[in-house]
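Researcher: I'm preparing a figure for a lab meeting and need a structural model of a single chain. I don't have an experimental structure, so a prediction will have to do for now. The sequence is pasted below. Please return the structure as tokens so I can convert it later.
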Amino acid sequence: MRAAARQLMKVFVTRRIPSEGQAVLAQAGISSVQQWDSDEPIPQSQLLAGIAGKDGLLCLLSDRIDKEVLEAAGSTLKVISTLSVGYDHLAIAEIKKRGIRVGYTPDILTDATAELTVALLLATSRRLPESVEEVKNGGWTTWKPLWMCGYGLSGSIVGIIGLGRIGQAVAQRLKPFGVKKFLYTGRHPKPEAAAELKAEFVPLAKLAEESDFVIVTCSLTPDTQGMCNRDFFGKMKRTSVFINTSRGTVVNQDDLYEALVNGRIAAAGLDVTTPEPLPTTHQLLSLKNCVILPHIGSATYATRNKMSVLAANNLLAGLKGETMPSELKL
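Model: Understood. Here is the structure written out token by token.
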């Protein structure tokens, strides 16, 4: 009994999480869980108070776990589990210095994000939100030869920035649409993945110049931050469509706005922005040729539940000193 009591560890969860993950934590019996019981982000003051003296933290992508939070946690914090594949919200250098282990949730959201990327591409290129609005506001009067025309995938060249898991899954889903050729760019060639897709590895500039559709699915790194800027958009075709489902800061949004307003590119679809949420007064939201979604790439019930289960299991394994199902190697 005393041994069991000694093993009971303290955990802080920064948000309501899907029920399946919640059940994993509750049934494990190795920790006492304190939770911010809301769907809205936890205030900084509550986060600092809640993390104090905890052994484990389960957080979300929108929670900035910086030096201040780590210092508030103190020396007891052993593991951080983030319910996300991205980890740019974590102060990795500080976490590594403190010997804290980190779990994350890759792979699980690949299919859902790839599906959403294709949906966003089609909605943007075929002007679906604009068309729906025309039906609602009386703009649909009669059939007109060029009214609401957009751009199709058949016979097109698709350029993918970042041919990782999600990039490959997007390409596989686009193949049946009759894409003529895939181009891709990244830190290095991926011959096996490229062979299956018959994709060509090219420099970023060539991808911009030749692609009818540019899809960004890369990770956020110092090299990719702000990569899609005025120079990049200036190289794209005037009829090309730009899609970003990676990270908002990969794109210079002022430069994107300028490119869209001036007809430098045809249209853009974004599932990620800077900041998130994007203010309702933001200039990009005034454009008909820019479709913006509220970061819903992984938003299927099945995917979010699986992510929460993996995040919970990562946390529990870290608390027990065991191998995590998905540990970020620091």
